[in-house]
Amino acid sequence: MTMIELAVFLVNLLIAAQIAELGWRIGSWPGLIIGFPVGFALLPVACWMLGKVLPEVPPRPTCPNGSCDHDDYEFPRSIGFRLVCRCKCGLEFVRVRRRFMRVGPSDTLYPYVVWKRKKGWVADPKGEGKGTEEASQEG
User: Fold this and answer.
1) What is the pLDDT of residues 47-67, one digit of tens each?
2) Rounded distance, CA 13 to CA 7, Å?
3) Would 111 disulfide with which of 85, 86, 124, 136, CB 3.0-4.6 Å?
4) Do 115 and 121 form a contact (C-beta atoms < 8 A)?
């Protein structure tokens, strides 16, 4: 169990104890017995409902050929501190914040797509043909 998992578990336990105490005050033993599991299930149910409302950002878009999905990438190397994603077609990409950049010759980065909250992955307005220097100066 990691430290974050432990912290979430302890918060969940604290919520369950508070709901159980409320159940004890309202209905004595039955309130305590019912309150603890209800309190313990409250945080997971709230997180599940929040996950249904908020849009999920897929980690990677489909490749330009349209034949590789977001889980068809492998990670053969890195450029600096950025991991290079290679699709089944052999094209290489790097994720830079909300942008997915194509890796060209001599590890030059070219804009491919950008994540928009309501539209998903859309064509990058910076366009093809700009290298790392131009893209980093504009963004």
Assistant:
1) 888 877 876 666 788 888 888
2) 10
3) 124
4) yes
HEC-encoded secondary structure of the chain: CCHHHHHHHHHHHHHHHHHHHHHHHHHHHHHHHHHHHHHHHHHHHHHHHHHHHCCCCCCCCCCCCCCCCCCCCEEEEEECCEEEEECCCCCEEEEECCEEEEECHHHCEEEEEEEECCCEEEECCCCCCCCHHHHHHHC
| Residue range 24-51: mean pLDDT, rounded | 83
Residue 99: enclosing H or E segment and its boundaries? strand 99-103
